[in-house]
Amino acid sequence: MDFCDLIIKKRSGRELSEDEIRYLVKGTVDESIPDYQLSAFLMAVVFQGMTDRETAALTMAMAYSGETVDLSELCYTVDKHSTGGVGDKTSLIVGPIAAACGCTVAKMSGKGLGHTGGTIDKLESVPGVRTEMSKEAFLKQAKSVGLVIAGQSGDLAPADKKLYALRDVTGTVESLPLIVSSIMSKKLASGANSIVLDVKTGSGAFMHTLEDSCRLAQSMVTIGRACGRKIDAVISDMSAPLGNCIGNAMEVEEAIEVLKGNGPEDLKELCLELASDMVRLALDISAKEAKDKAQKALDTGYAAQCFGRFMLAQGAKADPIEHPELLPKARYSMPVIASQSGYLTAVDALALGNVSLKLGAGRKTKKDVIDPAAGIRVYKKPGDYVHKGDLLAMLYTNQECACVIPDSAYAFEEEKPKPRSLIYKTFV
Ligand code: URA
Q1: Which of 284, 232, 294 lies closest to 96, judged by CA?
Q2: Could you report the per-residue pLDDT of 363-418, keeping only the tens digit for each?
Q3: Which atom number of ligand 1 is nearest to the Cα of residue 186?
Q4: Rounded CA gap, 81 and 45, in Å?
Q5: Distance from the first to the final alpha carbon of the chain
Q6: With contact defined as beta carbons under 8 Å apart, do 249 and 328 qualify?
Q7: How far is residue 117 CA from its own chain's centroid?
Q8: 365 CB contacts (<8 Å, ≥6 apart)?
């Protein structure tokens, strides 16, 4: 096969066969196809798209391009994936709830990049916590604790690793079939039987419009089911930050608040929805039973206990539920003051995510080192009435920097806005 013929075939909008797609993936991993040809192919996909058959074939070929995790000896395995957002600490909450309900959550997660945070960085902000572990240790903890979260092994879906790195530098990230195959190949290789996807929509999300987010969710659900997994998706809002905290250690603290029965309403609502979905899929019970179980796990404190056991198993020096004071704190803080009065109609997630990045809470490139204590505490959210001079947010950092949240991140109106939707749609 000559790969140039496949580039031309895709460029002219024709469908590739399964064999041709397998050839592409094999050539990506063994590096027999040079980067310039792969880049040209990716750009052809951006313009011509892929059929469902092609997307499914690409997903499967990438999923099996390296190591896969065998969770077959575990019961009721469930994974949850968020397409990424600002202040999204849901994995730290829904994992313990699902584990408390009898599910096994054996999850591989990524580090944050750009304005979106990553679960691994949040976990590693807890003193002592490790997310690198052997396969044996991963399975052992899954069995004994019911919850384990590890950094993604380099051997998992190596074709995606290579293609994603190329997409990042060739302007070819924004393509539905490429995003679907990238995310789903890693989910399939990670081995869980049930998967719940949290597809974000809005300024801080990968997909800015509801229509695009729905297309992404539908496509991932279709592929996951075609590959024999139980999978559902929720479309949730990311036009404003989720919860009140942005930044790694601060988000752990907020997750603990929710597990203790407190915390902000939007975060609690979304976590209950996602956790109930995980429990329903994994245990094969009704939506009502699942929601009752998840709520009970929270109300009885059992989910909080699971979180503590999980943290200690991952190496935490002390249970952060009992000792939240051990979480790192920033040296400097700077208030953000309202310059006018009125109802807040927008608190732009992307703008706040970018400020948090500058404060040190995120990384611009994969090699950057993050500051676990840096971040933003949000005091006013869309729908709140604000008086001129009120505290809108507080910025935290260990660097001497002059970061500000731009005025354009906030929008005010005289009329009280309609309540914002948090969950737009579920694909069940
Ligand atoms: N996240 C991924 O893992 N892959 C994409 O293509 C986009 C987001």
Answers
A1: 294
A2: 988 888 999 999 999 999 999 999 999 999 999 999 988 899 999 999 999 999 99
A3: 3
A4: 24
A5: 41
A6: yes
A7: 8
A8: none
